[in-house]
Design brief:
globular, 1531 residues, 34% helix, alpha/beta, eight-stranded parallel barrel, 17% strand, seven-stranded mixed beta sheet
Length: 1531
């Protein structure tokens, strides 16, 4: 049984129809259906006809599967429904969304085959099949002796052609009675029955370990079948298919012509009975065109009787029937007579009357009108005449092609003179009556009791659509003579369902059940033209009798996608593929690689992985029974090497009886009547009717079949095909557990060595590893016996060829090898160089190869150490007695000492961060540098390579070429002290063994080591985070790693020092000064641009991201330290924009302080005893606004005093000029821009500030282009009161008010000096001012006469919230931007729910993009959604990225938009809330997909319009990840 814990995941996406995609699964697998991004959040139901446990399978019975969501509600990333696959067959699934079918497909579950009395499993890749023509087995009592040849040759499956009673032609596939055993098998004293055959099949399974399968033929029955005479409705006859009447008339005419030619009646026209040249062919063409076609007038079947139609039209006109056209596009057309009578077609008289309208009622006008009508009918008839002429032209062409093949072609049957037995062309229809003249015969066509017996023969049509039935109406195959016809068989007509032809369906179902009862499998004969719905129904019946039915078929559809339709709908287990289709040895080798196995050195795949589309499992045959004999096409010497190549394929293999005996002709399924030979070990080469190991290549076949079965059973699933030279193919099968290989070298003989020259020089071969033995060496040789003579009674082969074979010998005993040297290629590459001397055409040699002992031991030890990560590595593992001490511990215990800050070093760090520490990311030559120096950099690349086994990738090439990358991984960590170094040492110790194995295996084991370490480290990271993360979905967990990615400690501290009085501050030894220094985690704004140096830490970015990345994830202490570090740098009541360690800080933003305050509020609410932070000491770097920077500990204040100072300063008003102002500080800023002003409006309570030359909010793009004249002009100054700052300020005031009421915050308000007097403004008062004015002044009313509207002329959208209030350019206030949603989240109380909802709906319609929010309304005249920072032009609005915040879709606002939607939808009502959850899950699914696919494992800063990639964006941005985590937290 396959391992029970294999899981495959099938991602469902809306409107995805997968009917042409093959998904193959094994019994015991679990299949999970999960929602793709297009369906997440939606109510999707998955239906399948796979039966519920304990129920029977009904193809049309579907059931809904139930969803499991292991982590609860927040998103759909882990939601799945599943099937535990225990029954083989083909199953359908589809899914619907809101009761509409949205997509679907099929899964095919392989059967499990069992042999022997103990029912051991026969793996599909172990099958070795041989085809027997049943009629050549002779009487039943002799079968065992004949079948024994297959057993002795090592086959484990026999395919019998049908065993039923045959029709008159004696073709194996023309069955007279599907239910009766062929009477030829009975002897005078013993009747052969199905149960006799069943007993033999059972005996062969139990005693010979062989399975038996047979054909099912659903397409046709023999023309002389008794039952079709009684039930002619089961075929296509002239009653149920009148469209065939013209074809029947033509067929009879050609038969009469044929009889006349045979009787010599056309000699005078140049056509004798014996057709020998082109002149005769031209005469046939002339006679048909001049004598036959004019006589049978086929066009009349498609034409209207002109006089009759005109008369009818005239009658209607004179009765005054006038019509008006209802549809002007309706034109007069011929309506085909359903009965196909001559001139029986009609036209729609209503359309005629509406088209031809007389200008008056007078007789002349009516006459004129009738003439027009007659002219139109004659035109239509002429078109039909022309159409028929095209059909007739094709019919003559096809007829002549058939004559050429049957009578003139060298490769054809050369039938000789035309006679009744061999007519000019095969008849297309049965004719069971006595012959008459053609005119008399035509009368029968209209007599249903006779016409029902004219049945269409079956056949095949070159290049036809296999999904179309060529006998149904709409097809002209019979009329155009395009059918290559089987004159012995009648095509069966099933209709669309059993009710359409009850007898036929019941008869064939019974036939199927008999077959399934006695045989282990079926071959679907002529599968590509079997109606799919019929085969589906029949196979369902067969599987109900025998669930593990083995189904094979040969398809000639010419398209893999169409093949898949058949494989899917019928549950075909193996498709027959043929090596004879290869035109040279190179192509034969390619087929081996195509049809099975994975590349040597492939990666170990996880047990839970995506379900990948497959190609159908192959039954690869050296030759099939209905194809020509390879000896005729190639040479007798090629039988052995070509079957060896086939035998090495990692799939089922097979051959046809006669191939091994070297029968030099095709054994015809129609005409062969001789019997197969029996097995007799004592027979001589010339004994008629007996064979043994001396015959043909039988001895070689036994060795090949044994080897094929061993390789399949022992897991040699990896394949490598090497085209050594034009005739020599080496096929390697490799076992990935033991790393044993078997290499088969075959020298083909497509050309006869006696008549063609072959090179004497055979190239040397290098075989990596140690050759343990020569499994087999065999050569085709000639022997001196009497030459071949076709035996009259028995099928016999060439007696004068056999194989010289030697098995299991040492290399020095070989007669094919001259010498074998050993070479060391690189430190651990053990290679044997083979020089051949007798590798003649037609010979093969097989080596069993293992790794050299040192490498074998290293692999075993490596596998032993990998068991801690996966039990997969148990097989092939060896105990490690001499390993390094560090390997005695499990990796998880070594890793357990790592902190989250350490994990940042081990897993992440981009190039800029590494360079700051004196390193860099690993650069793969001819490719690109890795994104991270830590393990994630490698894992991102390997995640792409692994599923595809892309061993040709430069990454794998680099690993095979040298140890550079391996050493980089371990040495980088060892160079860092502490716990990181221990992880490095563990890796280094593992890599000692890795370096001792052959280079081709290094990518696979390097990946296995890193995957094990990486997954352990991720689990460790999550174990140190909050319960929200630990119990969260995959999406939550992967987002939370953004916290590890962004939060780290570099070589140089990024944060200013905290107060020495503060507890729990981390310290380390400075490597250079050897002094103790603080080492707090800092938060990077984004990777790679904002990750190191002065550009790493930004006040605004840090505090927008802090709640999501640090508080929600449970990193409370580190969050506290960051809050206090920034607090220490406060100056002018502001927090720095760019931190610059505090000493190089820029205080040029108005919003960072409010985000900082919001974070302190969040900290107090989320962290247990969070308000304790308010008493923590803050070491003031700037005790006064103008003092120089002071060292930590100079002046400590509790945090609440610093908070109060910020509030106080804002209410007092802030006005200063940036220090060091000028181009040295900011080369683009204009002089006025360095002046910072912030204050509070005493009437409204709104914070305001800024001027038109600076940008104090997050939309901070400063113009840089001289050329476009925007240098020094902010694109979005947002001066006045920016909406999000007002919201953040309101949130803070409300919170401080609550704290002061609880006596946790000692201030009730702020004291300021105004007009020389001291004044107190309480927080309660300030709170009420904002509450009272916000909506009045920010909401753009739906009422045009709203008195609060200062600039009604600037309103261009109503029902929205302004982006600012009181801007120096008033129109900026009215721009629709996403910033109001921030205020909604932090201070929802200032919005009334109905207005808020209306504004959110407009924002959704206008601003919501796939991943982010448009930063400006697309209706705005300056909107531009594509950001290009490098482009300088004359265009003012876009030059040098001026439109950074004027359209591009930023990710972080989407978090606030979604959280606002969630909050207000709850207030609106449960229905709206449910809808909103669907929207949110759907939007977030796109972030999930981006996160999973991103090699940075992050979410970008922004995208261009409609979610397009922006090359100037950070690839992973702290606040982008943080806000999505916050949405999931809110959910």
């Amino acid at each position: 049984m396959p391992p029970s814990n294999q899981t495959r995941v099938l991602l469902l996406n809306a409107m995805e129809k997968r009917e042409k995609t093959l998904f193959r699964l094994e019994q015991g697998f679990e299949l999970q259906f999960r929602l793709g991004p297009t369906l997440q959040g939606k109510h999707v139901t998955v239906y399948t006809n796979y039966p519920a446990s304990g129920e029977l399978f009904y193809r049309r019975k579907f059931r809904a599967l139930s969803w499991h969501n292991p982590t609860g509600r927040e998103d759909d990333s882990d939601k799945y429904c599943k099937l535990d696959l225990q029954i083989s067959g083909s199953y359908q699934y589809y899914f619907s969304h809101e009761n509409e079918k949205s997509g679907g497909g099929y899964i095919v579950v392989d059967p499990i085959l069992r042999v022997g009395a103990d029912n051991q499993v026969l793996h599909l890749d172990c099958v070795t099949l041989q085809t027997f023509l049943a009629k050549c087995l002779g009487p039943f009592e002799e079968w065992e002796d004949r079948l024994k040849v297959a057993k002795e040759s090592g086959y484990n499956m026999i395919h019998f052609t049908p065993l039923q009673k045959l029709g008159l032609s004696r073709s194996c596939y023309s069955l007279a009675d599907q239910l009766e055993v062929n009477p030829d098998f009975s002897s005078p004293n013993k009747k052969c029955t199905w149960s006799n055959i069943g007993n033999l099949v059972e005996k062969m399974k139990n005693e010979w370990n062989m399975l038996c399968i047979t054909d099912v033929v659903y397409n046709h029955t023999a023309a002389n079948s008794e039952w079709i005479r009684v039930h002619p409705e089961c075929g296509y006859n002239l009653v149920n298919s009148p469209h065939l009447k013209p074809a029947w008339i033509l067929d009879r005419a050609l038969w009469h012509l044929s009889c006349s030619v045979a009787e010599g009646k056309y000699r005078d026209k140049g056509l004798p009975p014996s057709i020998e040249n082109d002149h005769h062919l031209n005469c046939i063409r002339k006679i048909i065109w001049e004598d036959i076609y004019p006589k049978i007038k086929l066009w009349e079947f498609f034409q209207v009787d002109v006089n009759k139609a005109v008369q009818q039209f005239k009658t209607l006109l004179t009765q005054g029937n006038r019509k008006t056209k209802s549809d002007p596009n309706q034109h007069l057309q011929i309506i085909q007579d359903p009965e196909y009578k001559r001139l029986g077609c009609t036209v729609d008289m209503n359309i005629a009357l509406a088209t031809f309208i007389p200008h008056s009622n007078g007789p002349a006008a009516i006459e004129e009108c009738c003439n027009w009508f007659q002219k139109k009918i004659e035109e239509l008839n002429a078109e039909q005449f022309q159409q028929t002429a095209y059909h007739q032209e094709q019919a003559v062409t096809c007829l002549l092609e058939t004559v050429v093949y049957e009578r003139l072609a060298d490769h054809g049957p050369k039938q000789g003179s035309v006679s009744r037995k061999y007519p000019l062309v095969t008849r297309y229809f049965t004719y069971p009556f006595k012959e008459m003249t053609l005119e008399e015969e035509e009368l029968l066509m209209h007599q249903p009791d006779k016409a029902c017996h004219f049945l269409a023969h079956n056949g095949w049509v070159m290049g036809d659509d296999p999904l179309r039935n060529f006998a149904e109406p709409g097809s002209n195959v019979y009329l155009r003579r395009e059918l290559i016809c089987w004159g012995d068989s009648v095509k069966l007509r099933y209709g669309n369902k059993p009710e359409d032809c009850p007898y036929l369906w019941a008869h064939m179902k019974k036939y199927t059940e008999i077959t399934a009862k006695y045989f282990h499998g079926v071959r679907l004969d002529n599968c590509h033209s079997t109606p799919l719905h019929v085969a589906e129904e029949m196979l369902a019946a067969a599987r109900s009798v025998r669930p593990n039915l083995y189904v094979i078929a040969e398809l000639f559809t010419g398209s893999e996608h169409i093949d898949n339709v058949f494989v899917n709908r019928l549950g075909i287990t193996s498709l027959i593929r043929e090596a004879m289709s290869a035109y040279n040895s190179h192509e034969e080798g390619r087929l081996v690689y195509r049809f099975g196995g994975e590349p040597v050195g492939s990666f170990v795949q996880p047990r839970l992985r995506p379900l990948m589309p497959a190609i159908a499992h192959a039954l690869f045959m050296d030759v099939t029974h209905d194809n020509e004999c390879p000896i005729q096409h190639r040479s007798e010497y090629d039988a052995l090497p070509s079957s060896m190549i086939v035998s090495m394929a990692c799939c089922a293999t097979g051959s046809t009886k006669g191939y091994d005996e070297l029968v030099p002709h095709q054994i015809s399924v129609v005409s062969e009547e001789r019997f197969y030979a029996k097995w007799n070990p004592a027979a001589t080469p010339s004994t008629p009717g007996e064979v043994n190991f001396q015959t043909g290549i039988i001895a070689g076949r036994l060795a090949m079949n044994r080897l094929h079965q061993e390789l399949g059973a022992k897991g040699f699933i990896q394949v490598f095909v090497d085209q050594v030279d034009e005739d020599i193919v080496a096929v390697t099968r490799h076992c990935p557990n033991t790393h044993q290989s078997v290499v088969a070298v075959s020298r083909t003989a497509f050309r006869d060595p006696k008549t063609s020259s072959y090179s004497k020089e055979v190239p040397q071969m290098c075989i990596p590893g140690k050759i343990e033995e020569v499994v087999l060496e065999a050569r085709t040789i000639e022997r001196n016996v009497s030459p071949y003579k076709k035996d009259e009674h028995f099928i016999n082969g060439l007696p004068n060829y056999t194989v010289e074979i030697r098995e299991h010998i040492q290399i020095q005993e070989s007669k094919i090898i001259k010498q074998a040297g050993t070479a060391i290629k690189g430190p651990n590459e053990f290679v044997q160089e083979i020089e051949f001397e007798n590798l003649t055409p037609g010979s093969v040699i097989i080596f069993r190869v293992s790794l050299d002992p040192k490498a074998q031991e290293a692999v075993g030890v490596l596998r032993n150490h990998l068991i801690q990560f996966s039990p997969h590595f148990k097989s092939g593992s060896l105990p490690d007695d001499r390993s390094a001490p560090i390997l005695k511990n499990l990796f998880s215990s070594i890793a357990s000492k790592l902190t989250l800050a350490d994990l940042n070093q081990v897993l992440y760090r981009c190039d800029a961060e590494e360079q700051e520490d004196g390193g860099g990311c690993y650069n793969i030559p001819n490719w690109s540098p890795l994104k991270y120096a830590g393990l994630q950099g490698l894992m991102s690349v390997m995640a792409d390579i692994r599923p595809k086994n892309d061993l040709g990738h430069p990454f794998c090439g680099n690993l095979r070429s040298g140890d550079w990358m391996i050493d980089y991984v371990s040495d980088r960590l060892i160079s860092r002290a502490g716990a990181c170094a221990e992880v490095g040492k563990w890796l280094k110790a593992m890599f000692v063994y890795l370096k001792q194995i052959p280079r081709y295996l290094i990518p696979c084991y390097f990946d296995a080591i890193l995957v094990g370490a990486y997954t352990t480290l991720l689990d460790l990271a999550w174990s140190q985070m909050s319960s929200f993360v630990q119990n969260g979905s995959t999406f939550v967990k992967h987002l939370s790693l953004g916290s590890v990615q962004m939060c780290g400690i570099g070589k140089y501290p990024s944060l200013p020092n905290l107060s020495p009085a503060l507890h729990d501050v981390p310290y380390r030894m400075n490597e250079i000064t050897k002094e103790k220094e603080q080492c707090c985690v800092s938060l990077a704004a984004g990777l790679p641009h904002f990750s190191s140096g002065i550009f790493r830490c930004w006040g605004r970015d840090t505090f927008i991201a802090l709640r999501g990345l640090m508080l929600i994830t449970g990193r409370y202490l580190e969050a506290r330290n960051i809050i206090l570090a920034f607090a220490s740098t406060m100056r002018h009541g502001l927090i720095p924009n760019l931190l610059g360690q505090g000493t190089h800080a820029r205080f040029n933003c108005r919003d960072a302080v409010w985000w900082w305050l919001q974070c302190i509020q969040d900290y107090c609410k989320i962290v247990p005893n969070g308000t304790d932070i308010l008493k923590c000491p803050v070491s003031r770097m700037y005790p006064t606004d103008d003092s120089p920077a002071q060292p930590a500990g100079t002046l400590d204040q509790p945090l609440y005093e610093v908070i109060q100072e910020a509030m106080q300063q804002h209410m007092q008003g802030i006005e200063f000029r940036e220090r060091n102002a000028g181009p040295q500080l900011d080369r683009n800023m204009r002089d006025e821009g360095f002046n910072v002003t912030v204050g509070v409006d005493h009437e409204t309570g709104f914070v305001f500030g800024g001027n038109r030359f600076n940008c104090g909010t997050w939309m901070d793009k400063m113009g840089e282009s001289d050329r476009a004249r925007n240098k020094g002009i902010p694109a979005t100054p947002r001066d006045g009161s920016a909406v999000e700052i007002v919201g953040l300020c309101k949130s803070t005031i409300r919170w401080l008010l609550e704290l002061s009421k609880k006596k946790v915050f000692p201030y009730q308000g702020v004291n300021i000096k105004r007009h020389g007097k001291k004044e107190t403004i309480t927080y309660d008062e300030w709170n009420r001012k904002i509450q009272g004015h916000f909506e009045k002044l920010f909401f753009v009313s739906e009422n045009p006469a709203d008195a609060n509207e200062k600039h009604p002329n600037l309103v261009h959208k109503r029902g929205i919230y302004k982006d600012s209030y009181g801007a120096s350019s008033p129109w900026c206030d009215y721009q629709l931007r996403p910033n109001f949603t921030i205020a909604m989240v932090v201070a929802p109380e200032i919005f009334s729910p109905e207005k808020a909802w209306k504004a959110l709906e407009i924002a959704e319609e206008k601003l919501l993009g796939p991943l982010g929010m448009k930063t400006l309304d697309p209706d705005d005249m300056v909107y531009c959604g594509v950001y290009d920072n490098a482009l300088d032009s004359d265009h003012y609005n876009v030059a040098k990225g001026f439109n950074y915040h004027q359209g591009p879709e930023w990710l972080w606002p989407i978090g606030y938009f979604l959280r606002a939607k969630l909050y207000f939808s709850r207030l609106i009502g449960p229905e709206m809330y449910a809808k909103t959850v669907v929207l949110i899950k759907n939007v977030l699914s796109r972030h999930y997909v981006h996160l999973e696919r991103s090699s940075w494992k992050g979410l970008p800063e922004l995208t261009n319009e409609n979610g397009q990639y922006c090359p100037f964006s950070c690839e992973s941005q702290a606040w982008s990840i943080a806000v999505i985590l916050e949405v999931l937290y809110d959910l």
